[in-house]
Design brief:
627 residues; mainly alpha; 1% strand; 3 domains
Length: 627
Amino acid sequence: MKKYDRESNTRIWTGKPKMAITIILAAFSVWCIYVTLFATFLEEIRLTSFMGLIILMGFLIYPAKKGLQKENHMPVSDIIFMVLGAGAFFYFTFQANVIVNQGTRFHWYQIIIGIIGIAALVEVTRRCVGIPILIVAAFFVVYALTYGLTNPDFFGRVRYLIRNLFYTKEGVFSTPVNVCSKYIVVFIIFGAFLERTGISNFFIDLANCVAGRFAGGPAKVAVISSALCGMVSGSSVGNTVTTGSVTIPMMKKTGYKPEFAGAVEAAASTGGQIMPPIMGAAAFLMADFVGVPYSDIIGRAVLPAVLYFLGIFISVHLEAKKLHLTGIPKEQLPKAGKLIKKIYLLLPLVMLVVWVSGNFMTMQRAASLAILLSVVVSLFDKDNRITPRKILDALEAGGKSTITVAAACGVAGIISGSITMTGLANDLINAIVGVAGNHLIIALLLTMLCCIILGMGVPTTANYCIMAATTAPILIRMGVPTMAAHFFVFYFGIVADITPPVALAAYAGSAIARSNPMRTAFNASKLAIAVFIVPYMFCYNPAMLLIDTSALSVIGIAVTAVIGIFGLSAALEGYCFADMNPVIRAAFAAGGLLLIHPGTVTDLIGLALVAACLAVQYVKGRKISAA
């Protein structure tokens, strides 16, 4: 994990220091739940205290660099940086009323405090997130200071930039951090509690029970279990390692090649972030950016998510048939009766969906009640009962997991603030619209490339914030509905986790499978072909996202999309009943793409092509079987 996931590279604390760190992290989680539910004080106080605690915990948890670490040791330089950095944010907390009322009149010492606070945030982000997002932030800040801002005096530009980035809601404390402190943190804590109920093992057993006995069963188990576990964890790499430690060895033992086994787990785990109802942290930001209830987001995300996982499922099935792989022996599969007895473990998730989708209460209240419900349901399982110690562990895990997301959101705020102040977003929009002309496909392709490139090593939340501020407005200007534009950049920000050359989830899967990392990444990209196609579908036909449509229209779109995904998956796999020759593969691919493109004529031609190819392959397969 430490090789592929920076969050796993932590300080070594033992004994009393470890207990102190545990208490700090747990207290932070409790504080966040209390603030989101009951606090009525100034928003600036909530946001600055939140980030001050993030800086404090970030330095306590993450060392300056990887490598050998001394037990219970923290360098003096780190302690000084931690105190100054957290102190800068807490200065704002305790002086919030004065700072809000002083307008634009800032003293130089306040500007220096702002610089220290931003520097501390940058350092924590470097430690727990990585360099790529900081390179992006540095580019926009340098652009603002050298070209974007109009003040002729350099120190005047610095003063203006720091004032806006640190002391207003246009920078660090803009929408990303606001949403993180208000919604995301509570859902992260809920995920930590849910994991301690044993739901991950339940999901794996459920997937085994549903698909384990069929051809290539372990790969299908990986797809189903990773989809279910991934929506809770919200981390592509973390989910790959967690479920992959079970499913990847099973796939290899069944007969799948190591590169394919690692790719299946990486592709499925990455897709967990687009799987309702939780969908990782970025979906909460989307609800705020678009200005709709979160229940709208999860409702519209269902069909694209199903198509994504269906594409992977079809590919692993065809691979299993091509290799003549069998399923898991019946005696090794979990008993359905035993699983039914534990169906109550799903109650917190089910109730969360009901509370949120029915608008019975706020998201944060629903998540808080779901946390309590997860504790209650665990009492019925003696093997996974949540004890006071597990409650402390869950609160600690929730606090620790929040550090990375909050740091990334803070830096994303710096990026979006710099873009807003300089008017760069509008210049970028005009430039790309000018290049694209009236051709939407060109704008979509350019946006996709931007999302994938900026997503390399950048967390999904931060990547989505950047794209929502820069490229989503381009698609909206080109006539794409706002919801579809934001879903487009959201999907392609996620896919960077499996797209070479920086495919973190694929590399994590390859580490477990002991396979070639780059081949694993290419296999994962091939398996996840749906995620490269579906976003174009809902931009050209927003009905897929339930925008201005009817039930009959959605059913028609779903049917043609499923057949289209099948055609593409079969073409990429090169097998359906029998090995395909190049002509049949090309016809399958063409038919799949035509079915994905909206339109009666293209649908009919696509159906005819896929049906003809199926018939040819079926006859060929029967002849081979008879021989």
